[in-house]
Amino acid sequence: MKRGGILILSALVLLLMVAAAPAAPREETKVVAIENRTGESVRLEVKDNGGIETIFLGAWQSVSRELVLGEQYVLSYEACDRMNRDAYIVAQDTTLLVLGRCGDGPGVTYRSITRPANP
Fold this sequence. Notes:
- The strands form two sheets. A five-stranded antiparallel sheet has the order 3-2-5-6-9, with no helix packed on it. Strands 4-1-7-8 form a four-stranded mixed sheet, with no helix packed on it.
- The chain has one helix spanning 2-20; strands spanning 29-36, 42-48, 51-57, 62-68, 72-79, 82-90, 96-99, 108-110, 114-117.
- It starts with a helix and ends with a strand.
- The longest helix has 19 residues, at 2-20.
- The chain has 119 residues and is of the alpha+beta class.
- The model is unreliable at 109-115 (pLDDT under 50).
């Protein structure tokens, strides 16, 4: 009986130690809308340090993604008869990335949302 009590007490102490361990700090994120205004369907690749996510967007379609503040993302897609590739660092005021309309100049634009980075 004494041995069973010691075993239960040891398990309880171990459980309390695991429960009291501090959790890893969670990275601060921001929900960002990505709008396809190219007038064409696109296959958008969003690349960060964790890998590549492929998003299929129809003409004039939009999607929201949770992005990490301070993280650099590279966006690549083909539209307007050219390959577009732009890099951005997500800032606190990030809210919207726009894949620009064909004929309106550079591919990805933004509204007071990010600091452009060198791809």
